[in-house]
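Posted in: Protein Modeling Q&A

I'm a second-year student putting together a small comparison for a lab meeting, and my supervisor asked me to include a predicted structure for Group-specific protein. I've never done this before, so apologies if this is the wrong subforum. The sequence is pasted below exactly as I got it from our records. If anyone can share the structure token output, I'd also love a short note on what stands out.
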Amino acid sequence: MMTGFMVSMIVAGVMIAVILAIAIPMDRKYIVRENRRINYRKTTIFLRWNYFDTLTVVLAVYSVICVQILNFLISGGYTVENNYVQFFTNQSQAWTLVTMIYFVMRLTNTYKSIRAHYGEAHAE
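Accepted answer (user: helix_wrangler)
Welcome! Here is the predicted structure, written out as tokens:
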């Protein structure tokens, strides 16, 4: 295995552990579940900015920085044999995908919460 790939996997593992350490307590504390389903009428966290949203913005900025550094490295003539190219390739792919998935989930949950709190007339 190449060094850049291994370091990228370790960094991703640490970052995932930090994200889960923030997300799991937030989920247990603020999201109201009834019969294993989210009760959007009682759950208000989707209607306001929270620290997980801030973390997601930080991840999005980190993804953009990784992509730009990768762009400069490849423009400079480095190939996939370079450890830095390997690292930034893996980081760019992973965190861009995670950020996009969270963004879609956040929009979906916010829409469901708006619909539950204000009815169908205000959701459109």
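A couple of things worth pointing out for your meeting: The CA atoms of residues 84 and 101 lie 26 Å apart. The mean pLDDT is 89.
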